[in-house]
């Protein structure tokens, strides 16, 4: 390995996660009474003597004098009083402990269950909090409380403990100290009454403390501690990027080279691993060529072997190798810190065949040469259903007949050429014509046809050209040499050609697989909706693997429902359904060809996203066969892509949905407040003025004012309603501009005319060239835009301030700008002025606008393919310019 | 102005009520119809001088009434439309309405339009020179002058001004102008019209951005001021 090893990121991450946390030390014992608490207190006293601030969170002395003596001199945290079932009990006060901030806290009995009312249900959760607060913790634990050992302990002792601690808590421990006491001594201590056993009937106690049990528990505790040490070592190696293996626990790898059956090797691996109580791995090597030959003859021994290994509890991997298999295997083994590799011996072959070593023999030789730091074990391999795979097999009969025809034709052709050349050349040269035939057949048809050609050529040559002719009689040394040369050429060339061909086929298969995956990712990327992705997935899987496919996703209630199938299918048999459910629930393959519910017709693979399970993808073959490993791997790759695509769609749909919902909510409330305020205000004025007209003694001047009020407020109400209507039309996309060439000067004139009343107090200056090219717009709609902008400018700039309107052309666009000399937009507002219901100075204090005018302008201008923007007129932010870009030419004509 | 009979076809009672008040204040006689059916019947029976027609009626739309009335009568029709219904407004003009006001309209504006419809300027101009304030147009020798100054109009410009002037205060649609001056084959060539309107404006000293004489109804047509 020339590549420098990098620390594994996960290892570094867990290291980093631990920084700032307190350190956890567990005093682990095989049974109560071995002296864990005592050992913990002793260790704590040593630390206290070093000046470490030690606080006893909780220590159960069970009245033992020597333990209590050790407590003396240590600060003890007062217990929290808890009233439980009418009794006063004491619990550790976690809050007080953390508040106290000692360097080291002693918390006895990690597996303890808290009474209700505390922070957590379990004491180990309290310990996690204390550690998180940066306080070191010493704690004690009996091996029987370790969750995964609970069953084992119950089997050994017949006593099941209810209080368990998750393994990860133990894994979290920075240090584990095994408190060991030989069983005889423990039994002696029990007899002496020095062991406190909680609420356990004497009989049960006696059973529990039987010597056999204690021995087993002791071994279990030792193993747990040792495992932990091993884990630490592994972590150390990963963090510091040390290349393995380090001789600690010998992990075992059962290696199944390409073409091996390996069931015996797996069983031996399992037995060895059991004896050594170590983890074991099974690694199957495949190549595309192997898969293809397997698919072709419908046989697959590796699949059942791997399932056997799965059942036997191995950690299974498959490695597809095309190049240097030995390095890949050794690299894998070093990464997993494996010491021992078990692999099946290649089948014995006739000595002659061994001159041309086959792939497995080459692989084994390479492994033996290079795996110097591993222990290699070769075990026998059972025969592969009575056939040899890797020796080139004679072709099938129909195919063989065709090849035989070709061979005869070639030899006949060569003979014809040889006969016609007979007069011109010496006899020996004629053999070269046959040699050419042999080499050609070898190159095009492989080994066996070329061997046949060689033999047939030799016979023909002998018959036709060697003296005496037309007999096979004479065997001279020279002729024997001819035969050997023919055979050698045919075998060499045939082998070369076969190898070349298989490489081409393998390359083609790799390209094919890549293309299939790429095809799907392309399809999925183009899919806009969930249903599109589902359909792309099922149709693609079905086409690529030539099978039926189905995709199930959880519905709102969480029950799996068929989202799509190819060919379309809307129901599943209960057995199939439970396989799908299993795959979904456990995140593991289930159904045909897997270890779970293999009687099912379908094989289901889970579709897992980063955050949740998305569903399950199933395939089934019409003839009910199991998917081969190649198909299975392609299916797994496809399932990953489907999961990715589904997750992408789900996320974007969620996002869009939440965005739409919040936007709708915002608009709805804005609309409500706007309607209640903006519709009512003019109505109040109108009603008030109308009643005022009734008042006796109203002079003509007062009457005019009231009439004017009614008129103006009525117009305001009308504008508001018109805005709402326009907005609705824009919102429904019902607005289709009816564009014609339009003179912007005329348009501005019409807009000013419409606003002549409100605009009477504002001087308006127009600078639009007389001969400006007409804009291609809907005059009615753009007039509305200009009216809205002018009205806004008037309202916000105030009476007496001038309004400037200008237009110019830039390329294919006309820009119309309307500027006022008002206070300008507040900072940051220019991005919002076109939002619905946005207005300067929100609320009652603001101008009496609807907050819709500019939003409508934006909608109309954008419907024209134009753009609208707001900007200050002066550098100091005063004045507002609204500029509109409009097309000068008909966009339909330019497209 | 002489008293004329005006028929109001409108289903909203309050609108009919204030229109009646305003029209009677002008000295007109008013008939009211609340439905299309009733409107057609009254138009036939009373032969009104002008009809004010709402486009949205309960039993049929206003266009139907207009088409029925146009079967036998050329009576001026003023359409009441709503602003968001540009298409209905234009359809009504195409179907033979003379002018429109957009709801909500000011009563003053409506009465001005109605006056424009009731005055038969073509008849006035047949024998005389047409005068709109400082603008006087002589049909006999094709001359127009503004405040005594000759405008030097080309033949087409004069025809355009004459057409607008005989409809002064009334809407003249683009379509109508193009057919009358350039012939039916040019009904869609609004770019001619824009050019001539611009030239006419220049000679009248009128500013498109702040018109005094020729008012643009965007997307519909033009209206000449009455002086």
Automatic annotation (TrEMBL), chain A:
Its main location: membrane. It comes from Paracoccus versutus (Thiobacillus versutus). It is found in: Membrane. It is a multi-pass membrane protein. Its EC number is 2.7.13.3. Residues 674-890 form the Histidine kinase domain. It comes from the Bacteria. Pfam families: DUF4118, GAF_3, HATPase_c, HisKA, KdpD. This is histidine kinase. The lineage of its organism: Bacteria, Pseudomonadati, Pseudomonadota, Alphaproteobacteria, Rhodobacterales. Keywords: ATP-binding, Kinase, Membrane, Nucleotide-binding, Phosphoprotein, Transferase, Transmembrane, Transmembrane helix, Two-component regulatory system. One of its GO terms (molecular function) is phosphorelay sensor kinase activity. It catalyses: ATP + protein L-histidine = ADP + protein N-phospho-L-histidine.
TrEMBL record, chain B:
It comes from the Bacteria. Residues 127-226 form the OmpR/PhoB-type domain. SMART domains: REC, Trans_reg_C. Gene3D superfamilies: 3.40.50.2300, 6.10.250.690, Winged helix-like DNA-binding domain superfamily/Winged helix DNA-binding domain (1.10.10.10). Keywords: Cytoplasm, DNA-binding, Phosphoprotein, Transcription, Transcription regulation, Two-component regulatory system. PANTHER family: KDP OPERON TRANSCRIPTIONAL REGULATORY PROTEIN KDPE (PTHR48111:SF50), REGULATOR OF RPOS (PTHR48111). This is Two-component system KDP operon response regulator KdpE.
């Amino acid at each position: 390995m020339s590549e420098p090893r990098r620390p594994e990121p996960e290892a570094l991450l867990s290291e980093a996660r631990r920084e700032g946390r307190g350190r956890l030390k567990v005093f682990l014992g095989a049974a109560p009474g071995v002296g864990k608490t005592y050992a913990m207190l002793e260790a704590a006293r040593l630390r206290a003597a070093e000046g470490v601030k030690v606080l006893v969170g909780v220590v159960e002395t069970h009245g033992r004098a020597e333990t209590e003596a050790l407590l003396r001199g240590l600060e003890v945290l007062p217990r929290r009083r808890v009233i439980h079932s009418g009794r006063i009990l004491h619990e550790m006060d976690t809050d007080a402990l953390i508040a106290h901030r000692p360097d080291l806290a002693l918390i006895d009995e990690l597996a303890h269950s808290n009474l209700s009312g505390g922070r957590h249900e379990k004491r180990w959760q309290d310990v996690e909090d204390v550690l998180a607060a940066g306080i070191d913790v010493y704690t004690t634990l009996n091996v029987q409380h370790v969750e995964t050992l609970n069953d084992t302990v119950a089997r050994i002792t017949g006593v099941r403990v209810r209080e368990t601690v998750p393994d990860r808590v133990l894994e979290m421990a920075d240090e584990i100290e095994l408190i060991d006491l030989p069983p005889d001594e423990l039994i002696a201590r029990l007899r002496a009454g020095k062991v406190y056993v909680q609420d356990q009937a004497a009989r049960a106690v006696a059973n529990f403390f039987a010597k056999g049990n204690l021995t087993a528990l002791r071994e279990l505790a030792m193993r747990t501690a040792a495992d932990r040490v091993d884990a630490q070592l592994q972590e150390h190696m990963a963090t510091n990027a040390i290349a393995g293996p380090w001789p600690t626990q010998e992990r075992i790898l059962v290696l199944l080279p390409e073409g091996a059956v390996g069931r015996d090797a797996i069983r031996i691996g399992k037995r060895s691993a059991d004896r050594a109580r170590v983890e074991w791995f099974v690694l199957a090597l495949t190549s595309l060529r192997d898969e293809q030959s397997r698919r072709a003859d419908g046989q697959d021994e590796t699949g059942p072997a791997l399932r056997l290994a799965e059942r036997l509890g191995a950690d299974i991997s498959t490695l597809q190798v095309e190049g240097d298999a030995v390095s890949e295997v050794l690299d894998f083994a070093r990464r997993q810190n494996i010491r021992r590799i078990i692999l099946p011996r290649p089948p014995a072959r006739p000595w002659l065949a061994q001159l041309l070593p086959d792939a497995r023999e080459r692989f084994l030789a390479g492994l033996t040469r290079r795996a110097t730091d591993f222990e290699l074990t070769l075990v026998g391999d059972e025969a592969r259903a009575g056939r040899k795979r890797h020796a080139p097999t004679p072709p099938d009969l129909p195919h063989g007949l065709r090849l035989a025809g070709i061979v005869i034709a070639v030899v006949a052709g060569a003979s014809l050429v040889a006969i016609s050349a007979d007069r011109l050349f010496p006899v020996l040269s004629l053999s070269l014509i046959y040699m050419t035939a042999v080499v050609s057949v070898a190159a095009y048809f492989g080994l066996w046809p070329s061997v046949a050609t060689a033999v047939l050529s030799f016979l023909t040559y002998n018959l036709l050209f060697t003296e005496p002719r037309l007999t096979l009689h004479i065997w001279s040394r020279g002729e024997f040499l001819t035969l050997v040369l023919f055979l050698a050429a045919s075998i060499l060339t045939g082998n070369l050609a076969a190898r070349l061909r298989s490489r081409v086929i393998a390359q083609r298969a790799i390209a094919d697989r890549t293309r299939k995956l790429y095809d799907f990712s392309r399809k999925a990327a183009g899919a806009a909706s969930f249903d599109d992705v589902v359909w792309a997935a099922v149709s693609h899987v079905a086409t690529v693997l030539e099978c039926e496919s189905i995709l199930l996703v959880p519905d709102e209630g969480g029950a799996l429902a068929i989202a799509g199938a190819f060919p379309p299918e809307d129901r599943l048999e209960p057995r199939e359904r439970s396989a799908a459910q299993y795959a979904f629930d456990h995140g593991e393959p289930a159904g045909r060809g897997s270890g779970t519910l293999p009687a099912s017709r379908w094989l289901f693979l889970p579709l897992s996203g980063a955050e949740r399970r998305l569903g399950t993808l199933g395939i089934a073959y019409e003839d009910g066969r199991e998917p081969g490993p190649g198909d299975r791997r392609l299916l797994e790759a496809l399932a990953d892509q489907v999961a990715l695509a589904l997750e992408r769609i789900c996320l974007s749909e969620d996002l869009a949905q939440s965005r739409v919902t919040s936007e709708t909510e915002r608009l709805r409330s804005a609309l409500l407040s706007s309607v209640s305020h903006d519709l009512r205000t003019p109505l109040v004025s109108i009603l008030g003025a109308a009643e005022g007209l009734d008042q006796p003694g109203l002079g003509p001047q007062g009457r005019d004012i009231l009439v004017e009020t009614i008129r103006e407020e009525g117009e305001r109400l009308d504008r508001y309603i018109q805005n709402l209507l326009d907005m609705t039309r824009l919102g429904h996309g019902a607005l289709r501009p009816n564009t014609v060439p339009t003179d912007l000067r005329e348009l501005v004139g019409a807009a000013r005319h419409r606003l002549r009343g409100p605009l009477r107090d504002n001087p308006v200056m127009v600078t639009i060239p007389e001969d400006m090219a007409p804009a291609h717009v809907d005059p009615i709609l753009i007039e509305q835009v200009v009216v809205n902008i002018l009205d806004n400018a008037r309202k916000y700039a105030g009476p007496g301030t001038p309004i400037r309107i200008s237009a110019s052309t830039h390329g294919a666009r006309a820009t119309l700008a309307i500027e006022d000399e008002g206070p300008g937009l507040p900072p940051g507002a220019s991005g919002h002025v076109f939002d619905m219901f946005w207005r300067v100075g929100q609320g009652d204090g603001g101008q009496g606008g609807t907050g819709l005018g500019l939003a409508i302008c934006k909608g109309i201008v954008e419907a024209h393919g134009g753009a609208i923007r707001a900007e200050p007129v002066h550098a100091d932010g005063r004045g507002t310019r609204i500029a509109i870009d409009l097309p000068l030419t008909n966009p339909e004509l330019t497209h | 102005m002489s008293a004329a009979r005006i028929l109001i076809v409108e289903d909203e009672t309050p609108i009919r009520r204030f229109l009646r008040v305003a029209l009677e204040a002008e000295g007109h006689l008013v008939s009211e119809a609340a439905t299309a059916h009733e409107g057609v019947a009254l138009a036939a029976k009373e032969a009104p001088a002008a009809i004010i027609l709402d486009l949205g009626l309960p039993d049929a739309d206003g266009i139907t009434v207009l088409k029925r009335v146009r079967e036998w009568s050329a009576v001026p029709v003023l359409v009441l439309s709503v602003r968001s219904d540009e298409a209905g407004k234009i359809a009504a003009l195409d179907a033979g309405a003379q002018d429109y006001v957009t709801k909500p309209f000011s009563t003053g504006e409506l009465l001005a339009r109605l006056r424009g419809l009731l005055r038969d300027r073509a008849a006035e101009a047949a024998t005389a020179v047409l005068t709109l304030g400082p603008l006087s147009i002589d049909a006999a020798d094709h001359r127009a002058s503004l405040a005594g100054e000759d405008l030097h109009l080309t033949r087409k410009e004069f025809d355009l001004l004459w057409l607008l002037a005989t409809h002064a205060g009334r809407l003249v649609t683009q379509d109508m102008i193009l057919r009358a001056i350039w012939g039916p084959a040019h009904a869609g060539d609004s770019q001619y019209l824009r050019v001539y309107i611009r030239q006419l404006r220049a000679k009248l000293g009128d500013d498109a951005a702040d018109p005094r004489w020729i008012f643009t109804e965007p997307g519909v047509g033009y209206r000449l001021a009455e002086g």
